[in-house]
Specification:
With 577 residues, the chain is an alpha+beta fold. The protein has three domains: 218 residues, P-loop containing nucleotide triphosphate hydrolases (Rossmann fold); 80 residues, Elongation Factor Tu (Ef-tu), domain 3; 113 residues, Translation factors (Elongation Factor Tu (Ef-tu), domain 3, Beta Barrel). 22% of the residues lie in helices and 26% in strands. Strands 7, 8, 9, 11, 12, 13, 15 and 16 form an eight-stranded antiparallel beta sheet that branches. A six-stranded mixed beta sheet has the order 2-3-1-4-5-6, with helices on both faces.
């Protein structure tokens, strides 16, 4: 019989199998009993082993068994709870904490916007924010757009005058200086066009900034250039705006010049939509001109010509657009409604009346901080200027300046009126003095961001592109300039990945060889330097862009996928032998 298996039956070939008797089997298989001493202690609990699988945090470790001798088993002191009490005690005890899943994904866990929003929401709820920042007036950023000489700067200058920001004495000084320069009708625009070059030529070059306040709201004016040479400056201004004011000249000939092919009216409407502006107020200016004289037929003609194009740009004519007749130079229908004697057919609101009662844009106060830098300069330290796109900041906050990952501290926060304030929230245009970084290490397009959830800094991404205008076909290797938030950067289309079928709207499986005007494609884009961007679905304002080439807007697009560590992957593949 085998010694390896003491309980096995013996088998001999040629003989019939006969199991051994039960008594014999018991005598052979059962070892003699072991005598054990009587127990004097309660048995110790069995050790527990916890396994952590899939990256989740292990539950809290069990305490080591006590070395103190337990009470004798014959005298237990444990009390048995009723069934109801036991179940209640179990339900009251907190569940063991489970950590975040570390399952690998290309987008990484930090792109889970819902989780981030909940985390930030818990840190700063509405009550806390009200305690921190108080009940301040709502703040709107408005950008003036339109063809050159439509009256954008004049409208802005008169708004500053009638709201009391620029006093009468200063305006009289501007009027006198303008008269001496032979530019008498331009004196109102001098409140915004501050440089000698802009005043002499009567053309805005940079994005002028101004601030005014009504009883209901606070406003920042961004006066964008109208000339086609300065469209990049206009894009930078539109990227910081909540509402666009499209200024149209009603004067015979001027509207037609601005609206025909090559005029800036069409391009500006499309660019503000791409920049994220959701509402447009179309101010029909110069209604007091001798060629118009508040004529309703002229107002209706302009409205009929503009509406289809505005609709094609993506605005809803019923909810996103309003047409208001006015005279910026005389100031009619700006603050007070135009008198019936002048314009008997207009029953709508005045310009400021409409702005004060517009629905407020959605603010992401509880989201992670994102503030693209539009300007920087040195003044008793490093100063950056920009609009807070999401989140909120306070003095002495420790933040990150991306893409260089410079750790900075907020030394001071200033409003548009150069007043120091302890805090600011999204939507505010602010100037911030920083500690820990030199102004030479900052460029427009950098983003001040939260260290807990910094903005992505990448060199490659996938994007959907709508080709608007190009004289020839676009192939892989095509280069252009990308405008996104306050950043301008040269890019290359590394590869065309898909095109969208116009009939079905579905993506193609095969990559297209080229793209042409009117097509919608998906492309892999590479930038010359690292850029701070987000996916469009996560943060629309930091995920939509415009491509320009040779003074024309070639395409508009939105980022669908970020490719991080592209340089490292490329180098690794190149080194494989």
């Amino acid at each position: 019989m085998s010694k390896l298996n003491a309980g096995a039956f013996e088998f001999i070939p040629g003989k019939t199998f006969a199991p051994p008797s039960q008594s014999q089997n018991q005598n052979q298989s059962l070892p003699p009993p072991i005598e054990r001493p009587e127990p004097t202690e309660a048995p110790r609990p069995a050790p527990t082993i916890s396994l952590s699988i899939g990256g989740s945090k292990s539950s809290s470790a069990q305490p080591a068994p006590s070395t103190t001798p337990a009470q004798p088993a014959s005298h237990p002191k444990s009390t048995i709870l009723p069934a109801k009490t036991q179940s209640k005690a179990k339900s009251d005890s907190p569940a063991p904490p489970t950590g975040p899943s570390k399952t690998f994904s290309l987008e990484k866990s930090k792109t889970d916007t819902n989780a981030i929003a909940k985390e930030v929401q818990a840190a700063a709820d509405k009550v806390v924010l009200d305690d921190l920042y108080g009940k301040v007036k709502e703040h709107l950023n408005i950008v003036f757009i339109g063809h050159v000489d439509a009256g954008k700067s004049t409208l802005g200058g008169n708004l500053l005058f009638i709201t009391g920001v620029v006093d009468k004495r200063t305006m009289e000084k501007y009027e006198k200086e303008a008269k001496e320069a032979g530019r008498e009708s331009w004196y109102l625009s001098w409140a915004l066009d501050s440089t000698p070059q802009e005043r002499i030529k009567g053309k805005t070059v940079e994005v002028g900034r101004a601030y005014f306040e009504t009883d209901a709201r606070r406003y920042t004016i961004l006066d964008a250039p109208g000339h086609k040479t300065f469209v990049p400056s206009m894009i930078s201004g539109a990227a910081q705006a909540d509402i666009a004011i499209l200024v149209i000249s009603a004067r015979k000939g001027e509207f037609e010049t601005g609206f025909e092919r090559g005029g800036q009216t069409r391009e500006h409407i499309m660019l503000v939509k791409t920049a994220g502006v959701s509402k447009v107020v179309i101010a029909i200016n110069k209604m007091d001109d001798p060629t118009v004289l508040w004529d309703k037929a002229r107002f209706d003609e302009i409205k009929e010509k503009l509406t289809p194009f505005v609709k094609a740009a993506g605005f809803n004519p019923k909810t996103d657009i309003i047409f208001i007749p006015l005279s910026a130079f005389v100031g009619l229908n700006l603050k007070d409604r135009v008198p019936k004697a002048k314009c008997p057919w207009w029953d709508g609101p005045s310009f400021l009346e409409h702005l004060d009662h517009m629905p407020m844009v959605d603010r992401k106060i509880n989201a992670p901080l994102m503030m693209p830098v539009s300007e920087k300069y040195k003044d008793m330290g490093t100063i950056i200027v920009g609009k807070i796109e999401s989140g909120h900041i306070r003095k002495d906050d420790k933040l990150l300046l991306m893409p260089n990952r410079d750790q900075v501290e907020i030394a001071a926060i200033y409003t548009e009126l150069e007043e120091e304030v302890p805090s600011a929230i999204c939507g505010d245009n602010v100037r911030i003095r920083l500690r820990g970084v030199d102004d030479e290490d900052i460029s427009p397009g950098f983003v001040l961001t939260s260290p807990a959830r910094p903005i992505h800094a990448v060199r490659q991404f996938e994007a959907q592109l709508a080709i608007l205008e190009h004289k020839s076909i676009i192939c892989a290797g095509y280069s252009a300039v990308m405008h996104i938030h306050t950043l301008s950067e040269e890019i290359t289309l590394v590869a065309l990945l898909h095109y969208f079928d116009k009939a079905t709207g579905h993506k193609s499986r095969k990559p297209p060889q080229y793209a042409k005007k009117g097509q919608k494609i998906v492309a892999l884009i590479e930038t010359t330097a690292v850029v701070c961007v987000e996916r469009f679905t996560d943060h629309a304002q930091l995920g939509r862009f415009t491509l320009r080439d040779e003074g024309r807007t070639i395409a508009i697009g939105k980022i669908t996928k970020l490719i991080e560590g592209a340089d490292g992957i490329t180098d690794g593949v190149a080194n494989i032998s």
